[in-house]
Specification:
It holds the Pfam family NERD. InterPro entries: DNA_helicase_UvrD/REP, NERD, P-loop_NTPase. This is NERD domain-containing protein. It comes from Albidovulum sediminicola. The strands form 5 sheets. This protein has a 7-stranded mixed beta sheet. A 6-stranded mixed beta sheet has the order 1-2-3-4-8-9, with helices on both faces. It has 558 residues and is of the alpha/beta class. 35% of the residues lie in helices and 22% in strands. The chain contains 18 helices and 23 strands. It is elongated and about 115 Å long.
Amino acid sequence: MARMYPRELPRHVLENPKLSSEVRVYERMRDKLPGDYNCYYSRSWHEADRDGAEFDGEADFIVAHAEHGLLFLEVKGGRVSCREADGQWLSEDRDGFKFRIKNPLSQARSSKHHFLKRLNASRALSGRFVRARHGAILPGSARPRRALAPDAPLEIIAFGDDMETLDRWIVRRMTEGDDHRESALGLDGLRALEELLASHFELRAHIGISLADDARTIERLTAEQSWILDSLADNKEMAISGGAGSGKTVLAVEKATRSAADGRRTLLTCYNAPLAAHLRTICQGNEGLVVASFHALCRALAQKAGVELPSDGDQSVFDHLLPEALVDAVSNNPDLGFDTVIIDEGQDFRDSWLHALRLTINDPETGGFYVFYDDNQRLFSPEKGFIDALPASSIALTRNLRNTRRIHALMAKWYQGRRSIPAGPEGEPVGTMACRNGEMALARLNERISQMLNSGQVAPGQIAVLSGTGDALTALGERIAGKPTCRADDVRPDHIVLDTVRRFKGLSRPCIFLIGIEGLTDPELIYVATSRANVLLEIIGTAEDIARLKQEVAAAGP
């Protein structure tokens, strides 16, 4: 059996009655020609001449043999004829309808010249004058007694009479004639032809297009979550749980802006300073809405109320003295209190901090207290008593809206909470760059980001480079791929964010690059690291560390 390209005909070809003759020829070649023949079906081509004129063509079949060379064939079904008046070729079907068709021999000859030119241009034939023939197959027509035209002698055309022995006709067509100038195609010629006609390729996705398409989908899905807030309207206290990317922050912001719009003095707070900076940016212009990280809030209100605080101190200042100062400040000056308190990333808060925030509510009867938190059981949370005591929302945030499905599949390996359902677009595969050492990792990072920026696929503000160690941040300095960098709490639209995974908690970017992954050993940090990217996530490090993050068997790196 001959080696066929494609190995099997696609359904749309098999089910098209207009292509039945080509299917019949394909099957004859496949079943009758020896195994050292390669047969290519339906190979289109495009060519432009020196004047800029463009030409398109298609070779129905190209037969190749290492010793016998090439044969280009055009197939025309039906009963074929040619009008004497204008030389127009025609094909008549079984119902008597006639159709104009192109001269099959001219088509085959054009394909022959085109592909020989392509092979010579690639220098694959090393200047050889390769044996090449052309011909036509007319399976619906009987063999006539004389040549069809000066350029259509009977010996270069196979008719219906020849179909049962088509393999012998093809071999004869490829071997007849003797020209001492002609050379064999050779194994190298066969390889070059296969590369030209049947080579597989897979292009790297244009991230700019993916970003735009996937971002629109994620934005639409996230907007659909707002109806959940209606279910909270009659609940003065509520704990709302969900994994990374489930829309907790979006809902927290929406709840805060609605509350402020109703004339209620509202607090939106979180633990992480970079997240607080992000929340302040998106909440600008909302009168009556205070946005601050928890410890910054404690200091600010203490200063306003005249409560003394140490300028610095050990961990006890953050754990105890600042929360106590917050309570004292509101007690001394009730105007500093709130009608509604909304906490994002509540799993980061100690019970005593949450209790202090509840005490800032002016009127317990009418005040609102809402905690949005991640229910991942792998997260380090020494205290959960306060959140567990709050009325739980009857609607859990179980759909992941922020990440593509492929990113979700990776982060889900580090998630042990209520089942998270991916609702976003499929997205690109999680990229990996295996490197032997940190120096090579930084070089590969710069090269990859340069390629994306220079090709216009992304803007600097869409990228964040996150590290599991501080050493990698120091090594990268103030520029990546020639672009300035900024920290997560001082984001600028024309800068690339460069920060640690820990400080980026609660935030996201369309494109995330993870470096220094040898420092990502805590399951909490791995969960955070793998869930920050909306559309593109690429991991750079040793093959062993990459495999550990992906929970796969390590492959050998370069």
